[in-house]
Amino acid sequence: MSEAFLSRRVVFPLKIKLVVIMAALLVSSISLYAIFALNLFEKDKSAYIYGNSSEANLSFNNRVSNYLSSTFDKLQILSYMPIEKVGDILGNYQDVLHLDIYKDGEQKSSFYNQSQIENLGHSVEEYKRIVGSLNIQDINGFIIFKDQLESYLVLKYFNKENSLNLVMFLRTNYLESILSSFSQYDSYILNPDGTAFFGDISKNYFDEIKEKSLKEATIEVDTVEPKILSYIIDAKFKLIFISEISKKEAYKVNEYLLGKSKIFGLVLLSLSGFIALLFSRSLTSPLEKLYDLTLSISKGEFTKKAEISSRDEIGALGDSFNYMSEEILRYMDEMKEKARLENEIETAKYVQSTYFPNENLGLNSFNISSFYKPASECGGDWWGYYESDKFLTVVITDATGHGVPAALLTATAHCCLENLKQGDESIIRSPEKVLEFMNRSIQCLEGKMLMTAFCCVFDKERGEVLYSNASHNPPLYRGFDYDVNAKNNFKPLLGSNGPRLGHKGFGDYKVDSIDISEVERVLLFTDGILESKNSEDRDYGQRRFLKSLNANIAEANDVFRDNIVSGAFDFYGDIPIDDDVTIVSVKSEDIKKEEATKSGNIDDSELKTLLNKNLKEECKKYVTDKVINDSRFVFISSREDCENISILKENESINHLVGRNSPHLVHEIQHNIENYKESLSLGEYLGEAHFHNTTVREKSDFEKINNLLGTLDADGYFESPIDYLKIISNELLTNALYHSGKGSVFNERSEMDRQSSPLLGEDEHIDYSLAVGREFIAICVIDFTGRLDREVIVSNLERSFREREHQNKNGGAGLGLFLAFSYSNQFIVRRRPGVSTEVICIIEKNKRFKTYKERITSFHYFEEQEKV
Description:
Elements: H1 3-6, H2 14-80, H3 83-90, E1 96-103, E2 106-112, H4 114-119, H5 124-131, E3 142-146, E4 151-159, E5 164-171, H6 173-180, E6 186-190, E7 196-198, H7 206-212, E8 216-221, E9 227-234, E10 239-246, H8 247-250, H9 252-298, H10 313-355, E11 360-362, E12 366-373, E13 381-387, E14 391-399, H11 404-422, H12 425-428, H13 431-442, E15 451-459, E16 464-470, E17 476-478, E18 491-492, E19 512-515, E20 521-525, H14 528-531, H15 541-551, H16 557-572, E21 581-588, H17 594-600, H18 605-614, H19 617-620, E22 623-624, E23 634-637, H20 641-650, E24 656-659, H21 665-678, H22 682-686, E25 690-696, H23 702-710, H24 721-738, H25 744-750, E26 766-772, E27 776-783, H26 790-803, H27 815-822, E28 826-832, E29 836-844, H28 849-854, E30 858-863
Parallel strand pairs: 22-23, 23-24, 28-30
Antiparallel strand pairs: 1-2, 1-5, 3-4, 4-5, 6-7, 6-10, 8-9, 9-10, 11-12, 12-21, 13-14, 14-15, 15-16, 16-19, 17-18, 17-20, 20-21, 24-30, 25-26, 26-27, 27-29, 28-29
Helix pairs in contact: 2-9, 9-10, 10-11, 11-13, 15-16, 20-26, 23-24, 24-27, 26-27
């Protein structure tokens, strides 16, 4: 924008505006004040004038009435006095001219006050001639008698007691003095009929008085020349006393005040105009500086400042302009930084997108269709997978919040899975190990960022779907058989729920499982799809989500995914999602129920009847009398021990072989399936048994074991079970002693002559337990090397059955394992790789030795999953 465009011609300068505004304010304020004050003053003055007029008229009435009353009192006194004394008394009255006394209508006496008559400028004879024209009979109480020059007050009094009539003539000078005492008012007296009684009357307002119908009032009369009139109707003397004053005269002080106000207003107006001119300069000068500053800013010169020293709003405005310039510079720097960060975020967004697999994956046995949409540039959701020939592992995570911090956490999760892909396959095959590995990796954040996760392993070899949960919402699955009209085709994968990743140092995540034949599709998702809202602030929610799943249950995996997503986002409308949305649909393509069907076929009809009647329903599908190389199944064998060992050798995945003639066949099957799923402790595995525990560090400790066995009560067993228990104990302990230690120590001990005894160190020991139950006696030996695995055990048993001699090989088990296996009814091995091996040999309660010897030895091998 050019400087010329910013400039405009000033038509109405700010100085003139200030002068006009101040003048207008003063004129309006003074005018309003004058109007208000004068109005208030006028009201107050009116009250004063009306009250004063009323008081003056009342005083006028009282003085005249008192004068008339006192005069009548004089007449009353004179009417009782002797006539000869009346003259003397009458001479003392200054205003009395003469007195006539009548008796029975005839004049009896007359008294003249010569001095007072002469003061009027008349002789007595002239006076008599003037008043002689008055007819005494016409007088009723008192009248004013007038001639051409004078007026007289004539009073007539009748004494009923002596029938005397007294008529007194008085001068009106006293009445005139009363009138003159109210100089501001025009006072006069009217008769009741409205005729004049006394006083000068310019205009008679009797009609106005008559209209009021009040005995006393103050009113405004005459519209031409307004007057304020006060009147009193005297009931005693039947006279109307009136005092009036011109309204203009009464209110002339208002005019005076108004004139003074105008002069004062003009003075103030002139003074304010002068001050406004002075003040405007102090105002316009800083404004001109601010204007110059805006021109500089428009040119991009943000470093210039407006130097304004006034400590007022304009000074504050100048400071604001200066601050604005600084902020613009800072904002421009921030915009540059923001642009750089946005570029980096775009890069981060691109990098994060590479962490996600393709939306549509066609794997060997599975089809995966996924969808991911972050709530901001970068999201906190992530999912990944790993596939081998034997299993498929799928992981989904949801970090707390979203944005860059959450995205960095997903990068950690992605790296964890990538590292596991390069490492030991046994870890990535175990969902609880995967979660524990990721949990340890996130511990560096010290709980500031957490992440929920769910790991699911589709194990085709074992025929199971294994899963572990780290506080994630459980995925939904459905089987191969479903009803399109049903509402509950999809069920949650429920089980143990561990802590969020990063919450605890050791998550102790548990693994749960279902048969893979029960799963045709698994839908993993984050809670963003459920919790995002529409324009009515309503969540999409679980009910709508499940309804959408059932509506698309028969669709192909990618169509199923697309319809689920479009249904949710149609619900959201134009409202942005609150959280990242991720769904992963895993569909099994060719894993059917063949294995389950095969394992369910038991040829032995008697065995089938027994199991169908007594075995728990969930265990039946894992039992077979056929040789199936699958770690999930329990193989029931009627073969000899040596043949069974060969079967175990040839089928490395068979971990559970139960002798067909087991006296507690159903219990043994169910109990070992339970241990396979739950990893029971020794006490839980052996149940209600009495334990005798001790430790062994050298061969000399065997003696205390034999002494312990010698005290054993073997009532109910065949003749000599204790001898076999001693052999089993000694062989297991010998094997554990000579195969203990690590590295060169292990090599040295395993090559020692069996006549010599290794001596374990202070931190080494072998645990020995004797457990006596109601139906069995068990011996348990635990070493703490964990070297003895299934391959070593089965290989050495197979060789011992074949050759019946020791194997001289480092790390191998000798004839001791063969003897322990042969003399046991159940041979159980529970191993923690690299930690410990627990060998349990059980002799079942039998009274007949033949039954004991004919018992087909059961073999159970458990390998506890290694903690990450």
